[in-house]
């Protein structure tokens, strides 16, 4: 049976090295992020082209994308448990490409929103399959290490996304950015199709069953660690979405008026997140997921409180350097939580990795998108709503983690072993 067949159990001789595996998984994850970040400099031209009355209205481009992204995550995981990881990803990339093509010919803002919805529906496959494939091959702290390295690459790539978007705007319209998304989807399809073997283990392949899917979803909700860390992850993701939704107005136009320098500031802050992911990948095998993520969420809430104080002292417009340093601190601590929260949420559910990834992905994305929309839509020409949003999400996430661990923070436990092995 060939490696490209749905039911393949043997791996090709030239299967990807560890470096190529991690890079390919990171590329899968980065496609969705690139589809958000490289559009940020185009908010102004899109608002002008469609004569939108408010810059806040343009933020719907992010919201509808995340809604489609969230909803379709419910389907890709169970499908991949039935037919395999490879064909499921290809289905998602086709849907994403259709959305990208529609955006090129969108004659109204409403049609553009439909295109973004379809794009989100397609890119959900990259998020679900990337986590699922990593869980297929790794577990415990080793999985957290792989996810951290993946997140580092995943973050570094979009660091340049706003600058790339700005570059396209110099030589064309915002439509050119959607052309680049289409090209990236084709590159990913070819690379994945040629190099990634089927990772679904034969004994985990399941026939279609509504009851089985429902039982898997029920396990996600009733497993304390899964539900607790997924909820904390959703809240932290909401903070990130609130930042992404309002960052263009904060840095480029209304608060600091940086104009063309905006991608540099955005990229610098994103680079700090990449550094944090690298640090996490080096420390997680020694100190464990719980210690690092608990330090991250406690620190995030504390630094967010400082951001609120600074925002209030300066009437919502603190000096750029001061605000950027505090924001970068929050993002550094944020990056210590997300890969570890994700790993701990997935850890008890390796036998239903696809379904679990779908349910967790849907839940965290829809909650995160809604929380992020509340934060970004509260933008009032100052940084105060963002600071308050960070503080509330960080504090509630900390409370949820406290509940999940039954009041015992910073301690490794029996579910946090150091297997140090790949599940080949």
TrEMBL record:
<feature type="transmembrane region" description="Helical">
    <location>
        <begin position="227"/>
        <end position="244"/>
    </location>
</feature>
<feature type="transmembrane region" description="Helical">
    <location>
        <begin position="256"/>
        <end position="280"/>
    </location>
</feature>
<feature type="transmembrane region" description="Helical">
    <location>
        <begin position="113"/>
        <end position="134"/>
    </location>
</feature>
<feature type="transmembrane region" description="Helical">
    <location>
        <begin position="382"/>
        <end position="403"/>
    </location>
</feature>
<dbReference type="InterPro" id="IPR020846">
    <property type="entry name" value="MFS_dom"/>
</dbReference>
<comment type="similarity">
    <text>Belongs to the major facilitator superfamily. Bcr/CmlA family.</text>
</comment>
<protein>
    <recommendedName>
        <fullName>Bcr/CflA family efflux transporter</fullName>
    </recommendedName>
</protein>
<feature type="transmembrane region" description="Helical">
    <location>
        <begin position="89"/>
        <end position="107"/>
    </location>
</feature>
<feature type="transmembrane region" description="Helical">
    <location>
        <begin position="60"/>
        <end position="77"/>
    </location>
</feature>
<keyword id="KW-0997">Cell inner membrane</keyword>
<keyword id="KW-0812">Transmembrane</keyword>
<feature type="transmembrane region" description="Helical">
    <location>
        <begin position="21"/>
        <end position="40"/>
    </location>
</feature>
<feature type="transmembrane region" description="Helical">
    <location>
        <begin position="174"/>
        <end position="192"/>
    </location>
</feature>
<keyword id="KW-1133">Transmembrane helix</keyword>
<keyword id="KW-1003">Cell membrane</keyword>
<keyword id="KW-0813">Transport</keyword>
<feature type="transmembrane region" description="Helical">
    <location>
        <begin position="353"/>
        <end position="376"/>
    </location>
</feature>
<feature type="transmembrane region" description="Helical">
    <location>
        <begin position="320"/>
        <end position="341"/>
    </location>
</feature>
<dbReference type="InterPro" id="IPR036259">
    <property type="entry name" value="MFS_trans_sf"/>
</dbReference>
<feature type="domain" description="Major facilitator superfamily (MFS) profile">
    <location>
        <begin position="18"/>
        <end position="407"/>
    </location>
</feature>
<dbReference type="Pfam" id="PF07690">
    <property type="entry name" value="MFS_1"/>
</dbReference>
<feature type="transmembrane region" description="Helical">
    <location>
        <begin position="292"/>
        <end position="314"/>
    </location>
</feature>
<feature type="transmembrane region" description="Helical">
    <location>
        <begin position="146"/>
        <end position="168"/>
    </location>
</feature>
<keyword id="KW-0472">Membrane</keyword>
<dbReference type="InterPro" id="IPR004812">
    <property type="entry name" value="Efflux_drug-R_Bcr/CmlA"/>
</dbReference>
<dbReference type="InterPro" id="IPR011701">
    <property type="entry name" value="MFS"/>
</dbReference>
